[in-house]
Amino acid sequence: MKQYKHTIVLLLSLVFIYSMLFYTFEGRTIFWYLYAFTLLIGIAISLLAGKFEDQLPTWQYLIFGIGYGTITYGFVKLGYFILPYLDSSAIKDINKFLEDYGPANIWHYLLLIFIIVVGEEMFWRGYVQQQIKRWASPVVAVFVTALLFSLSLAISGFMPGALAAIVASIIWGLLYEWKKSLPLIIVAHVVFVLLLFLILPIT
Q1: Within a 10 A sphere around the Cβ of 16, how many other Cβ atoms?
Q2: Is residue 32 packed enough to be buried (19+ CB in 10 Å), middle (13-18) or exposed (0-12)?
Q3: In this predicted model, what pLDDT tens digit does every residue of 53-101 receive, in sequence order?
Q4: Which residues contact 198 (CB under 8 A, 6 or more apart)?
Q5: pTM flag (> 0.85)
Q6: Which residues does residue 54 pair with via DSSP β-bridges, in sequence order?
Q7: What gap in Å lies between CA 72 and CA 175, rounded to an integer?
Q8: Structural contact between residues 64 and 56, judged by C-beta atoms closer than 8 angstroms
Q9: Which domain holds residue 189?
Q10: Total of domains in the chain
């Protein structure tokens, strides 16, 4: 009965997140507010139904987070150089998406760092991935979660972003299973987005 309850909560949570994201990408004016709201609900679900691990001291998760955030950025940047050889319109699609939905002011960066990044990691890695481990091995759970996470971007039609989400999610998912530290993957994600959008923009 308890297993059944966990399954229902997980499925309803995914339906809610995907439904909200479908409307979130409908307009630029509402994107940042609705996306942040959606992930606030994701945080609440994770706190109520999930259980998080933090087995590293602060100095270790900061060092590992900076390192793996930089590595993730490196993979995505490499993909950015390779994509034009596979799809001639990929760079145009990336530029259009970033123009429409990329962070444009300090308010966007604050939402990105303190709500969106935290919410994505708590919900996808801290909650969904751990729930899937009830039926599958940790490695399988990582890859299934990566596909589910990428679908949240594929809803917008932004396929290069969905591919990048799979890569990043696999790295962070495996890192979470290895080091058992949610703050570590949050730091890695923050470092990644700061490199991607602010320090060394991909475009």
Answers
A1: 14
A2: buried
A3: 888 888 899 999 999 999 999 999 999 999 888 887 888 989 999 988 9
A4: 103, 109
A5: yes
A6: 181
A7: 11
A8: yes
A9: 2-199
A10: 1
